[in-house]
Amino acid sequence: MDVYGVPFVGSEAVDAGIVRKHQLRRDFICVFPDVYAHRTLTLCVRQRAMAAWLWSHRQGVVAGLTASALHGAAWVDEGLPVELVWANARRPSGLRTYDFRLASDEFADSHGMRVTTPVRTAFDLGRRGRLGDAVARLDALGHATGFAVEDVVVLAARHRGARGLRRLAAALELHDRGAASPRETWLRLVLIRAGLPPPRTQIPVRSASGLQYYLDMGWDDLKVAVEYDGDQHRANRRQFVKDVRRLEELRELGWIVVRVLAENATQDTIERVRRARDSRLR
Q1: How confident is the model over 83-103, as pLDDT tens digits?
Q2: pLDDT tens, residue by residue, 59-70
Q3: What SS3 state is found at 126?
Q4: How far apart are the first and last CA of the chain?
Q5: Percent of the chain, pLDDT > 90?
Q6: Apex CA 213: angle with CA 207 and CA 217, to 5°?
Q7: How far lies 3's CA from each of 13, 171, 232, in Å?
Q8: For a designed S-S bond to 36, which of 28, 48, 169, 260 qualifies (C-beta 3.0 to 4.6 A apart)?
């Protein structure tokens, strides 16, 4: 039993003679009741999920945003409570538990514990919160796993009467696995809600020099692209230099690229995109 690199059950380690009780108090922190980790260990999402699973006597199923992160979805806040399907009326701090049944095909062994499948995870995340947030969560999970929307629809039919099914249906309608960040999801939804045709995401373009580029979103037929520029484009000098060359080559190929920054007003962004499209439509 490794008691230095991963969380562990304290009583099991003491019974096995690996650590003594006074060592638990001195050298380890109590993550959850009877689950410990070494004081020098900074717990990542996977390790916090493992600690929660151990707390459930290895019977719970990691779910929700925690499961999404384990499946590779980016942009999941590591400070959020671990989500676990495990009936317990007195859950400790740092945990969010759910009391519902899962079919055998809705979870699987992953990362040494039980985790909801990507399809079940999508079913759960798409029913929660505001529509835009639900779409962003689905986009992140889809970008990482490529789950099939049709499979989520089939699962939803199995759970008729579950809360949030209408929101799930709307979120799946707007879902696009090509979104590489929550801000890209936000930008795509802004354009769609403004009445513009849904843009294609991750448009592949090969430059005259042979470099392969991928545009955040846009319309191939008009050669109009819209890209969200995050802080990394300005803070990283090397990235900035690459962006300059990339933009020049895209212009040489006839593309209009509308670049959107966090400081840009939503209506101004919509109008800029409309002007770019109109210039090509004319």
Answers
A1: 999 998 788 999 999 999 999
A2: 999 999 999 999
A3: coil
A4: 70
A5: 87
A6: 120
A7: 8, 42, 38
A8: 28
